[in-house]
Amino acid sequence: MNQSIFYSKIELPNIKLKKMLSLMTEWQTAFIFQAPSNNTIRLAYGAVAEYYFDRSKNQFDALKEWQSSLKKRLTNSEKAEAEHLALVGSFSFDPNSAGKDVFWGKLGQGYFFLPKYTVIKSGNNTELITCSLDSTTLKKESRLFAKKLQAVSGHPLSLTSHETLMQNDTALAQWTAAVSATTAQIKRQQLDKVVLARSLEANFSDTINSLAVWRKLTLTQPQTYHILLKTVNGSFISSTPERFGKFKENQFQTAAVAGTIKRGRNRKEDDYLGNKLLQDHKNLQEQKYVVETIKTILQKHNLTVRCSKRPQLLKNPNVQHLYTPIMADGHFELFKVLRDLHPTPALGGLPREKALRQIAQVEPGTRGLFGSPLGYLQFDNAGELAVGIRSALLTGKTAHLFAGAGIVSESDPQNEAAETQLKFQPLLRVLGDQNDEYTNIN
Ligand SMILES: C=C(O[C@@H]1C=C(C(=O)O)C=C[C@H]1O)C(=O)O
């Protein structure tokens, strides 16, 4: 299996996003990545190579090995640089966690692929990277795909049949009981914080159009990441506000996002709630654990870390969070840093191992990709990964939505349940919306 992989890069004329999304409907394996306040969109179609994690090895070590075995097979027949060639996909929250929920299939253990075609649209510049196992057809494949992109009719990404039929939230009582058990455990032991997640199953009258959902989220949640991982096992979609890492040589940027309050109905109420959050002991404590842990890990890797002393507010349409951007400079080994950082106390807890044991014991479901780093990793080890929260697995007519909340000793189960309910809202609204005004796009 040491077949060479050939690749080429060409510039494309300006093609409408609508066409790019339309063409994606034909592909079973696909990926889209858009970071907040960034006009670059990365779209990937099909896989020339793919990797499902198994439980035998640490997933970050496993991906490093797979990446280096692929790197040896890359042959540049077109003098394009390998820079923009990237693996795309998602790690798993915990590949070793027992699979309580069968709906994840093997996707729940994490999945990356090397795309057949990658389109990178950055403002008015669009480039197409094509990978092929056959050097004689590479150019032709690339030209053909470019032609198809331009020719495809950008048919409306209709959401009209997404009538919500049923929401199954039977696990809620079980989840609030898990929160109570956890606060008791925190008070008893040296456990500081545990993030507990719950899932919500929603069924619809028709097959969910994951591309339409992605597009609508970009319009309704303008300040978040927008990521879609489309696979044979279903589509994982995330509109997360949380960066796991943006990295290139000698620089690693991350963020601590934790502590949540709702948005106000008007400016005055919103400012009041924001200020309340900025002064709230419980939330400040929750977020401080995240900042301090991330700083310590990065410093252990000999990185020089810079961040502000006090958090700021990160506002999304439904919720606002405490947020500290963290910058680290110096030489580092990417996969070792990723391995040590995941999961941060924003999604796991503190101390990490004890918190993970508590999660495994009391959480009703399986997280799968929820809360995992997902994004793209270039072969030169630059790239960006977000934390897969505000997310759902879409399979056929069913959506499994996920949301979690940080539990500390002062947590109240009802408040935490309300917080997770708020976190479900953006996706629930888009999934259940029968109005497709947003999807008639250019
Ligand atoms: C776990 C989630 O969010 C995390 C938990 C937060 C909190 O407890 O306040 C805030 C942001 C995230 O770090 C989620 O949105 O599902």
Question: In words, what does this structure look like?
Answer:
This protein is α+β, with helices and mostly antiparallel strands. It has a domain at 168-206 and 255-368 and 384-439: Anthranilate synthase (4-Layer Sandwich), CATH 3.60.120.10. Helix content is 31%, strand content 33%. The protein has ten helices and 21 strands. It has helices spanning 17-24, 59-73, 138-151, 171-188, 210-220, 267-279, 281-300, 334-341, 352-362, 413-432; strands at residues 5-12, 30-34, 40-52, 74-76, 86-90, 111-122, 125-132, 164-168, 193-204, 226-231, 234-238, 243-248, 251-262, 304-307, 312-315, 319-329, 349-350, 373-378, 383-387, 391-395, 398-407. The protein has a 21-stranded mixed β-sheet that branches. A hairpin with a 3-residue loop joins strand 15 and strand 16. The longest helix is centred in the middle third of the chain and has 20 residues, at 281-300. It is globular. 48% of the residues are buried. The ligand C=C(O[C@@H]1C=C(C(=O)O)C=C[C@H]1O)C(=O)O binds next to strand 13 and strand 21. The site of ligand ISJ has 16 residues, from strand 13 and strand 21.
- Enter the CATH topology name of the domain at 168-206 and 255-368 and 384-439: Anthranilate synthase
- The named CATH superfamily of the domain at 168-206 and 255-368 and 384-439: Anthranilate synthase
Assign a percent range to the helix content: 25-40%
Provide the gyration radius in Å.
21 Å
CATH class of the domain at 168-206 and 255-368 and 384-439: Alpha Beta
The CATH architecture name of the domain at 168-206 and 255-368 and 384-439 reads 4-Layer Sandwich
Mean pLDDT: 91
Overall 3D geometry? Answer: globular
